Amino acid sequence: MAEKKEKFYITTPIYYTNGLPHIGHTYTTVVADMLRRYKRMRGYDVVMTTGTDEHGVNVERAAKNAGIAESEFVARMADAWRALWDELDLNADEFVRTTDLKHVRTVQWLFRLCKENGYVYKGHYTGQYCIYDNAYVNDAKPGDPCPDCGRPTETVTEENYFFKLSAFQKPLLDFYKKYPDFIQPETRRNEIISFVEGGLKDLSITRTSIRWGIPVPGEEPHTFYVWFDALCAYISAVDGPEYERRGMWPADVHLVGKDIIRFHTVYWPAFLMAAMLPVPRQVWAHGWFLMDAAKMSKSKGNVVLPRPIVNMLGIDALRYFLLRDVVFGQDGNFSYDALVTRYNSDLANGLGNLASRTAALLEKNFAGKVPKPGTGLPQDDVLARETRSAIGEVLERFDRFEFSRGLETIWTVIAAADKYLTAEQPWALGNAPDEELRKATILWTTAELLRIVSVLAHSVLPQSTSKIWAWLGQAGSLSAAELDGLRWGQLVPGTTLGKFQALFPRVEKTEAIERIEAMANEELNPPSAAPAPAPGSPTASHGGGAAAPAPGVVDKIGIEDFAKVEMRVGQVKTAERIVGADKLLKLTVDIGSEIRQICAGIAQYYEPESLIGRKVVVVVNLAPRKLRGVESNGMIVAASVGPEGRPVLAGFAEEVEVGARLK
Ligand code: ME8
Asked: Is any ligand 1 atom within 6 A of the Cβ of residue 256?
């Protein structure tokens, strides 16, 4: 029997639904996804969760402004968040919405446990409350601004249930001492310790003034304070009251921004201690991405959007920049200039160039096969040694969440290989047997280094490293490669190389920035003829009115024409690349009544293994045809996004039955 894997549970915050994701939210989610991939490659059984925080007075107001019910408002927003994460290939294993029934049950259960254990009582509270941050402002007087966002606070008096936070000062301080790694980084830990040492006041955890919240059972009109509600999402994601069955709780790491560290390291462990539930192992608070030295926020209008960056430079480029450019834990300034500069220097001229040079030389000299190396010269051994020691160093750095430094190590090796190729000049060697052998040694060495780099960097650059892996003729999915089994010398001579796919085409900086900015502008201010929800304005799609059709738009069709197209929900069973067709994937798809073979032109954007089990929309009554010699019996529906028409698969935010017809 296979050994049971050690579990690792990673969370992102659950994000507010009053706007759509910007680069700050994307940052936390990219880190969570990177860790998930990394930990899986180190043999862990990993779960990563994210979600949406859907209650509170902000949502009440936004829904009212939009003229729709709160439930509809949050459903639309949750769909939009999920769709964007899908587009960025950041789909979590569990996506929690705080309006999910399983979450509601968890919140009520945690409250009951805290109450049964004597940590909850009823009282009255009057205070200054910031409705934007959903928090009372301690010691504020009427009219005082919120210290976090600067907006005016409101005076609120209400009957509340209180949580005896004051009883947890000592248990928390003891806990921080016993588990010094609980709060990361160190500077945040010190801040929290001095905050708790300063004394803790009891905390009101229910509201009577807010209707749009989870009801306190038998105590209507009390609803739960949004933070009591939201924090529970971390347990409801992994089966709530039945958490022991799932075996994932406690979380191994809560990734959060430094803005919400107090909620996670003071309130949350106190709630759990009161309920006598296990406390998470670690809370890692990263810094902020700043725009012009200010925190990005919708209200300031200085947000950077992920989609235009990805459309221009690709998903891997965004991930690389976020993880490489800022030391995890510190604040960082975001600039398109720095983004594109790094893209060109590290990705296009660095990894991309090394791989394409090596591929061209192998193709030309060894007919697309891995050559057998001869005895190495000292310079070959130096490169091998450097790569070997990089393996351990990268793992150590990633384990310590030093993502930037881990990547630095990988790029040192890439630079060394680049220099090595330039110095050894395999292209200048002739066809005499000793020169052939030298060429073989140089190119085997470089290819082996690229294989190792692709395994080491896979969690950060999943798409491009998978291309290197496929080109190197390596079996199976790179995501299943084991980091702990990675050694120099595993590239087998004679292996047939696949077709090389360009990784990171060089871009012209000014033009790239202009294009990203134009796309961002369009997303933030959608043209009225094609309204679409913009970040922060979930109802933008409903204000458009009837626009005159643009010239060139096809004539309208009747419903009878539409009815001719039969679309059904399908589920992908298998997916593989097609040799010699770098854009196509061959899929088998269950459409309910049968399993179909369908070719889809999505190979440059989707990893085959990421599609297995995914629900897709299939046009099932399309006449069969052959694509590159492979029969395709149906069509998968996708949106065409951005200037290059990147395909984004249509899908469903809710569970749907395989075979269901779309109307
Ligand atoms: O606070 N730089 O949700 P939220 C870096 N619902 N990270 C940033 C960022 C920036 N400029 N802006 C946002 C909430 N983030 C609550 C959480 S959890 C139980 C409830 C990231 O939508 C960062 O992770 O305001 C931050 O903590 C989070 O988004 C805040 O998201």
From this structure: yes
Cα 425 to Cα 356: distance, rounded to the nearest angstrom = 15
**Distance of CA 570 from the midpoint of ligand 1 (Å):** 35
Atom 3 (ligand 1): residue with closest C-alpha? Answer: 15
Q: Which two tokens stand for residue 344?
A: 């060109």
pLDDT of 528 reads: 45
Distance 15 CA to ligand 1 centre (A): 6
Q: Are 401 and 440 in contact (CB under 8 A)?
A: no
Atom of ligand 1 nearest to the CA of 290: 11
Residue from 28, 110, 253 to probe ligand 1 pocket by mutation (most atoms less than 8 Å from CB): 28
Ranges 51-60, 216-225, 566-575, 628-637: which has the least confidence:
628-637
Q: Which residues neighbour 432 within 8 Å (Cβ) at sequence distance 6 or greater?
A: none
pTM: 0.79
311 Cα to the center of ligand 1, angstroms = 24
Residue-wise pLDDT tens digits, 331-364: 999 999 999 999 999 999 999 999 999 999 999 9
| Phi, psi angles (nearest 5°) of residue 599 | -95, 140
Q: Give the Cα separation of 141 and 308 in Å (integer).
A: 43
328 lines ligand 1 (CB under 6 A): no
Q: Judge contact between 125 and 175, C-beta under 8 A.
A: no
Cβ-defined contacts of 421-428 (< 8 Å, 24+): 421/354, 421/357, 421/358, 421/446, 423/379, 424/379, 426/361, 426/365, 427/361
Given a cut of 90, whether residue 578 has pLDDT beyond it is no
Q: Tell me the C-alpha distance between 602 and 499, whole Å.
A: 17
280 lines ligand 1 (CB under 6 A): no
- Give 498's DSSP letter: -
Contact of 471 with 359, CB cutoff 8 Å: yes
Q: What is the pLDDT of residue 150?
A: 82
* CB of 311 closer than 8 Å to CB of 642: yes
Q: What is the DSSP string of 543-605?
A: S---PPPPTTPPPP--HHHHHTS-EEEEEEEEEEEETTEEEEEEEEEE-SS-EEEEEES-TTT
How far is the centre of ligand 1, averaged over its atoms, from the C-alpha of 256 (Å)?
7
Query: DSSP state, 484?
Result: G
